[in-house]
Amino acid sequence: MAEKNTFYITTPIYYPSGKLHIGNTYTTVLADAAARYHRLLNEDVYYLTGTDEHGLKIEQKAEKLNMTPKEYVDGMAADIQKLWAALDITNDGFIRTTDEQHEKAVQKIFQQLLDQGDIYKGEYEGWYSVDDEEYFTESQLAEVYRDENGKVIGGKAPSGHEVELVKEESYFFAMSKYADWLLEYYHTHPEFIQPETRMNEMINNFIKPGLEDLAVTRTAFSWGVPVPSDPKHVIYVWIDALSNYITALGWSSEEDALYQKFWPANVHLVGKEIVRFHTIYWPIMLHALGLPLPKTVIGHGWLTMRDGKMSKSKGNVVYPDVLADRYGIDSVRYYLLRAMPFGNDGVFTPEDFVSKLNYDLANDLGNLLNRTVAMINKYEGGVIPELQTGATEFDADLIKTAEDVIEAYNGYMETLHVSDALAEVWKLIARANKYIDETTPWVLAKDEAQAATLSSVMAHLAAALRVAAILLQPALSQAPKQIFEQLGLAETNLLIADLKFTDLPTGGKVVAKGEPIFPRVDVEAEVEYIRDSMIGGGKETAAVKKAKEAEAKVDEAQPVAEDIEFDEFEKVSMKVAEILEVSEIEGSKKLLMFKLNDGTPNGRTILSGIKAFYPEYQTLVGKKVIFVANLKPRTMMKKYVSEGMILSAEKDDKLVLTILPDEAVPGAEIV
After folding, report:
1. What is the model's pLDDT at position 377?
2. End-to-end distance of the chain based on CA atoms, in angstroms?
3. Cβ-contact 193, 275 below 8 angstroms
């Protein structure tokens, strides 16, 4: 039997000086999606994460809490592992730099580099940031403090953390002698650093100006791995931390089977702020040790807030457990993977989170599943019919969409462009929803001669959902299983390898009544809930109580509208329009301005108070809607003229526009 391909992916090991937020969680969920994907390709996968537990900051934190450093990191490591378990993270290993095997291996690495002349003793004087565990030259500081004579007395690191002047005996790693080798390696291995812009940063900012030797020990604190031959020195964080990727596999130990099988790593996944350490220090260190280099280091962007990076002092930190407890694991996983573009920063907003939950998950995916299950029950006795293609003129395009999506999805997932991969899956979901409108099953059901066609339509919808569920397995840990359960499909043949639309199992019996896998939520209440949790840490403040009250609200009987005569109804002219532009109106929290193609040369402008329901209002561009065409124009906010009304459906503080099929022609009468 041929050996399986292997895939080894790592996250950075997290510094447990505080509770992890959704920025840290993004890295872990992204790596988890990659690991799940490669398992679904039937590969042998090893996924590693862990904690970086040494250093002055940990020593100081423990002291403030009247604990030993080991007691402190034991508790933090347990909390982090509990968080990853709660988010269905499927890591195979969890490395702690306080593990005995790791510490012994770090000492071996240091001694080898010392023996072969790559490490030497000297004295270091420079600016040190405790929070960053990093030294900086004066020119590297983002801000410099000077006394009245112009002498530098302090400053801030690029991260914004304060630095202090440190002067102490230190061992140095002779990085400078490997600069030319590293530059050549970059040029011959362009895939080593992704995205490409990160490589340019390393070359222009650190190598070309002159690569400096790296201080690799400290004597100012004791919480670290001691140098065997000079124990007053502890090994500085980057040799200690970076080596975890091989020590976790058993490198240099008698039990090194994992190292032999999985090294070199396929992907080191790191935030952009630590790309330098992983693409300069780490490859030089491995090269000096005579070991293979990882194949690719991906430096992803930050998940930021509107006002910059997350910070407890700003009161803008979002914690994943707060979101998961209220909205479910998959909502958090989907948001993180969908909202972050490859290599670039993403911006978290409560509005965007709720929008993706309501529109992508509840409306698009959830509604497709609900409608399909209901129709198979109604028209097919609850049994998925055999897939027969070509019964309608729309079958071929649905199948072609699925085939194209599968191909594009695999290309994106191979390179960890997971946001783009998910966008492909939503193309299939959107096409399946459109397929329902095109084939009109409710019309086919009225004609017994169309029974075979109706069965074919139901099978095509089930097949589209099956493909979507299989492709969503790396990103979502629960919804794919729920889709299979509601469709009555056995959880077999769920591999992504060789996935085909037409491989639909027949005879599966759908559930009698499908439950929404992603219930819609009240926009205003939930946005406020998230904002409040950012400030109050998820405590039951006024906004939280308001959200719970909205959630528990019981439907009340709607008042019966007064009857009107037909001739009164005939006075209302309703037509089709295409949305050309949507924009906000300065000074208004509710209004959006719509520029419409209504079939006339000049079009028309309509103002609508639906801003709260469509925070991502740009997604409405290109949609076809119904509007009241003969409503008397009115002036709003003293200077804007609204020429009609766009129709929407509203109940229980939820509102959606009436969206028409793409075939609807602007200007057509609604009759």
Report:
1. 96
2. 66
3. yes
What is the value of pTM for the model shown?
0.78
Number of CB atoms found within 10 A of residue 176's CB? 14
Give tens-digit pLDDT for 457-486.
999 999 999 999 999 999 999 999 999 999
Distance between CA 294 and CA 664 in Å, rounded? 54
Max CA-CA distance within the chain? 99
The encoded tokens of residue 343 equal 């290599």
533-536 contacts: CB < 8 A, separation 24 or more? 533/318, 533/319, 533/322, 534/315, 534/316, 534/317, 534/318, 534/350, 535/315
Domain 107-218 bears CATH identifier 1.20.1050.10:
no
Calpha distance 272→343 (Å, rounded): 8
Other beta carbons less than 10 A from residue 387's beta carbon: 21
Do you find a cis peptide bond into 226, omega within 30 degrees of 0?
no
Classify strands 162-173 and 119-129 as parallel, antiparallel or unpaired. antiparallel
Strand partners, 562: none
Other CB atoms within 10 A of residue 459 CB: 23
Q: Which residues contact 550 (CB under 8 A, 6 or more apart)?
A: 522, 525, 653
pLDDT digits (tens, 9 = 90+) for 232-260: 999 988 899 999 999 999 999 999 999 99
| Element at 642 (helix H, strand E) | strand 640-642
More confident residue, 573 or 458: 458
Residues in contact with 542: Cβ distance below 8 Å, sequence separation at least 6, in sequence order = 532
- Strand bridging mode 645-646 / 296-300: unpaired
CB 664 within 8 A of CB 624: yes
Instruction: Give the three-state DSSP class for 162.
Output: strand
The pLDDT, as a whole number, for residue 312 is 62
Write down the mean pLDDT value for the chain.
Answer: 89
Q: How far apart are CA 199 and CA 208, in angstroms?
A: 12
Cis geometry, peptide bond prior to residue 264 (ω within 30 degrees of 0):
yes
Third-level CATH fold of 323-509:
Isoleucyl-tRNA Synthetase; Domain 1 (1.10.730)
- CA atoms of 175 and 242, how far apart (whole Å): 15
Tokens of 85: 């378990």
DSSP category for residue 300? E
Structure confidence at residue 493 as a pLDDT band (50, 70, 90): low
Domain regions of the chain by residue span? 6-97+238-304, 107-218, 323-509, 571-669
Confidence of residue 558 (pLDDT cuts 50, 70, 90): very low
User: With contact defined as beta carbons under 8 Å apart, do 312 and 19 qualify?
Assistant: no
d(CA 246, CA 293): 11
| CA 259 distance to own-chain centroid | 29
Q: Quick one: fold of 6-97+238-304?
A: Rossmann fold (3.40.50)
Residues 6+ apart with CB under 8 A from 55: 15, 133, 221, 223, 224, 237
The values of phi and psi at residue 21, to 5°, are -110, -175
The token pair that represents 654 in the structure block: 């939820």
Closest CA to 329 of 472, 522, 479: 479
User: What percentage of the chain reaches a pLDDT higher than 70?
Assistant: 92
Is-contact 182 278, C-beta < 8 A? Answer: no
Query: Strand, helix or coil at 263?
Result: coil
Helix pair 418-439, 451-472: axis angle to 10 deg = 170
Q: Which residues contact 67 (CB under 8 A, 6 or more apart)?
A: none
Based on its alpha-carbon atoms, the radius of gyration of the chain, rounded to whole angstroms, reads: 29
Question: The tokens 């997971």 sit on which residue?
Answer: 418
Instruction: Let me know if the fold of 6-97+238-304 is the same as that of 107-218.
Output: no
CATH of 571-669, one of 2.40.50.140, 3.40.720.10, 1.10.10.10, 3.50.50.60: 2.40.50.140
Asked if 36 contacts 473 with a C-beta cutoff of 8 angstroms, the reply is yes
